Each structure stands twice: as C-alpha cells, then as structure tokens.
Amino acid sequence: MSPRMPAALKLHMVLFYAFLYVPILVLMALSFNRAGLPTVWTGFSLEWYGKLFSADPIIRAARNTLVVALASTALATVIGTALAVGVETRRQSAALDALLFAPMIIPDIVLAIALLSFYTALNMTLGLHSIILSHVVFNIAFVVAVVRTRMRHFDHSILEASADLGASEFTTFRRVLLPAIAPGVIAGALLSFTLSVDEFIIAYFTAGAGQGSTTLPMQIYAMIRFGVTPEINAMATIVMGVSFALVLIAQRADKGVFTR
Amino acid sequence: MGPGLGWLALLMVVPCGLIFTYAFFERGLYGGIDYIWTFENFTRAADPLYLGIFLRSARIALTATAIAILIAYPAAYAITRAPKHWQTALLILVILPFWSNYLIRTYAWIVMLNREGLINGALEGAGVIDEPLPLLYNSFAVVVGLVYNYTPFVVLAIYSSLSRINRETIEASEDLGASTFTTFRRVILPQTVSGVAAGGVFVFVLSIGNFITPDLLGGGRLQMVGNLIYDQFLSARDWPFGAVLSMFLIAIMMVLLFTQAVLAGRASGERTNS
C-alpha cells in the first residue's frame, strides 16, 4: 500500500510487538539466570535445565504428552483429510460447516466436562487413551480447516481430466489430489501436534485419577499453582521453542496456511 | 467422510447432548445423576450469587474484547500499510505466540506482574513508586492475560478484511477531498465491520468461558463462569448444575456467532450489490 506510514502508527506497531514478545523473552532469559528469580540477573547458568531432566515426573509427563500428541495427530490427519476432501467435493452445507467449525469455538471447559460425562456414562476407564480420543475431536477441526483452504486454491477440473483419462477414483486421489494438497496435510498435522502438546483442560478432565496419565501441561499447571520457580522458566523455554519450531515448519510447508 | 463425521458426532455432539439432558435431572446424593425430572437447576442459576458471577464474567470479557480490538485495529492497519514483502513475516510474528502453550503465556504474566516482577521493579527503579503496585491476582491481571492471549486472533481477523478492501474506494474518497479521518470512518471502517465482529466474538466467547486465566492471574479469588463450571464437576460434584451453566455459555456463544454471521452476510451482500 502507501509507502509512508504515520509516526503514531509506527510507534503503535513497535509497542504492539513488544507487548507480544517481552513477556516471552523475559521468561526465556530468566531460565538461564543463576538466581532463577526475576528482577536481578546473577549470571548465566544451565542448572535449571539439568534439574528438569533429572526429575522423573517431568520425564514421564513428557513421554505421555508425546504419546498423546503422536496418536491423536496421526488419527486426526487421516480422518480430517478424508473429511476435508469429502466436504469440498460436495455441495456446500452451512450445517456441515458449523459442525466442522464447532470444536474450534466451543469453550474447552464445556467440551471437557461433556467428554468426562460421556466417558463416565459409558463406565469407561480413563487414561491416555481417553485423552487421545478427546484430542482427535479438535485436531480434526484444524486439519479440516487447513486442508479445505488448500483445496479451494486447487483447480477441480484436473480431477475430472484424470477421471476422463480412465484413472480410478483411488488413483486420482493418490496421483493428482494428494500431491496437490500435501502441503496442507503436512501443515495441518504439524498444527494438530502443536495443539495436542499444549492442550491442558480437556486432558485434565479426561485423564482420570492418578499420576499415570499426567501430561506436560498438567505438570506445568501443578508447578505454576505451587509458585514461580526457575524450573518452570526452563520448561517453558523448551516447550515454547518446540511450538515455535513446529509452527514455522508448518508455515514453510504450506506458505499460505496462516495468511490465506 | 464417514469416520470423521462419526467421530465428531460421537465425541462432540452426543456428549454435548448428554450434558444438555443432565441439566434437567437432580443431582445424586454422592455426585452423579438421579434421574428425576426437575427445573430446579435453572432456577438456582438465577440466584443473585451466580448471576453476579455471570455478570462479572461478562464485564471482564467485554473489557478484554474492547481493549483487544483497540490494540488490534491499528496494528492490523499498520501491517496492511507495511511493504508487501514484510507483511507475511509480520503476520507470522503476530500468530507465533498464539500457537504456543496457553498456560505458559499466562504464567509469563505472573512473572511480569508480581510484586518483585519486571514492571514493579522497573517502576521502583525509576523512582515512580515506593511501594510495589498490586498488579497481580485481581481483575486487572485477568484482563491483561485475556487481551494478551487473544489479541493476535483479532489482528488476523481485521487484517483479512482490511486487505480485501478495494484500494480504489480509498483513493476515490481522497480524490473527492475527504480527510484521512473521514475516509477511515466512512470508507474503511464500514468495510471491516465483519472482521472486527469475528475477532470480537472470538475474544468474548473464549474469555467468558475461560478457566485458566482467572484461576492463575485472578489468584483463584476471582471466580468466573469457567471456574464455577470446573468446581461443579471436580469439587462440588453437582453435575446437573454444572451442565446448566455450560448450557448458558453455549447459548451466549450461539447468539453471538449468529449475530456475527448476520453482520458478515450483510457486509458481503452490500459488496455484491454496489
């Protein structure tokens, strides 16, 4: 647009990005602070990271999180991609759109208690498997959204050409459609994984009693409730670093995933 | 399509339907549900105590929404005026925090706002204050947390409607002698109503049902609807009443989404008519 930008607008932009990033950067810097407390810098140290990696509950929680995120991402990517392709190749339906959009906008506390009530009504034992089942619900919605936008920028007549040339429906999907939407599928999978790794409330309600199925966000929540500690800063830095990396890879895979 | 729709039906529609029915039954003596029809859960929700919590949640959510829009609009506008090759990078910087752990983003504000935190430390260091300000564990902290967490989405929503504006309508307005402010108010703003509405509804809905932010930044002393629902399910074990509260939340959400859809429909209708 216009090359000149009023000074006030520029200032607002600088303050806005500072507002977004200063808290995160402060947290990350403090994770390397020897004293481990805010306000005073007492020297560089990796002590808090060392403490983190020698704590059994944290290692177990990290492992649980990885299991949940990998399983729910795999399921949601396959199911969600099929769903997106199905929806986009059929007539538009507002009801269907609403159903696919719902998991993204329902307050997570409502979905969490609904799922807890449902599992309890079925007398289901809760654990990692019930967290996985629950995470797939919102992961499907995100995969569908990303793959659908990718499909809208795809020339559907190519599919007809493929069919006219005698390709079976499956061949058309595998050789024509899938390569075209693959970036969207990959981005959707990466975002699902990120969401699942970070999700707290639904996991908290559907994990059941006992420590066996504690995930990393549940562990972080317990630690924050306990107070501000340098270990949280170290853990937060690692978790944020992983999320940022995954989101940036997703953006590289599907350039328009956030900006279309 | 089958498995996906089945999954959403079984693990979203059915569970939500289930708590919908729970709302009409009595609570069991030891938690759980007694299958006796009643409307008592609804009359109980009208109790001034709970009504007060609803109103407070709405007020906090509304404040957060208004502030988020005020911060997001100029930011989105500035991004559309930045050089084209910068815009994608600027947008990605906006959403990057949005995709990281919500608990950690909220915790970052405990570090910023506590008595020995960065803000109090800086203000004391500059000699502005002698005593640390009580910035944490109150509604101020909750609003800050909500604004921080949800503003990125509002920027995206407003950016997307700003970037769809036909540049010629702005030039036409300027050529016809309108001031920058008039052009903004009469040409740009009306064309971005749907973006503002989409962003605003998102912030409001996620804020009013929020559980983590009031819990961590409100210090557990400041109850909002989300915390109330949480208590009914995990500590008071009054599931029917928790179900009623969730239904209210869903109802508010549906009304707002419907309003927003109408606004968006009207905006796109105007665009095709003219």
Automatic annotation (TrEMBL), chain A:
Keyword DNA repair annotated: no
Chief localization: membrane
Assigned keywords, A-Z: Cell membrane, Membrane, Transmembrane, Transmembrane helix, Transport
Annotated Gene3D superfamilies: MetI-like
Lipid bilayer topology: Multi-pass membrane protein
InterPro entries tied to this protein: Bact_Polyamine_Transport, MetI-like, MetI-like_sf
CDD domains: TM_PBP2 (cd06261)
Localization: Cell membrane
Superkingdom, natural source: Bacteria
Transmembrane stretches, start-end: 12-32, 66-87, 99-122, 128-147, 176-195, 234-253
UniProt domain ABC transmembrane type-1: residue ranges: 62-250
Similarity comment: family membership: Belongs to the binding-protein-dependent transport system permease family. CysTW subfamily.
Protein name, UniProt field: ABC transporter permease
Upper taxonomic lineage: Bacteria, Pseudomonadati, Pseudomonadota, Alphaproteobacteria, Rhodobacterales
UniProtKB/TrEMBL annotation, chain B:
Residue intervals of the ABC transmembrane type-1 domain: 54-262
PANTHER family to which the protein is assigned, alphabetical: INNER MEMBRANE ABC TRANSPORTER PERMEASE PROTEIN YDCU-RELATED, INNER MEMBRANE ABC TRANSPORTER PERMEASE PROTEIN YDCU-RELATED-RELATED
Subcellular location: Cell membrane
Membrane topology note: Multi-pass membrane protein
Main location: membrane
Protein name: ABC transporter permease
PROSITE patterns for the chain: ABC_TM1
Domain of life: Bacteria
Protein species of origin: Arenibacterium halophilum
UniProt xrefs under InterPro entries: MetI-like, MetI-like_sf
Family: Belongs to the binding-protein-dependent transport system permease family. CysTW subfamily.
